[in-house]
Amino acid sequence: MLGEALADEVLARYERSEGAFLLGCPGGRSLRTTYAALAARGAALDRLAVVTMDEYMGAPAAAHYSVRRFAFEEIARPLGLEPEQVWLPEPAFPDAYDDRIAAAGGIDLFLLASGASDGHVAFLPPGAPRDGRTSVLAIAESTRRDNLVTFPEFGALDEVPSHGVSVGLATIAAARALRLVLHGADKRSAAARLLALDDFDPSWPASIVHAHPDAEVWLDKEASPE
Question: What's the pTM?
Answer without folding.
Answer: 0.96
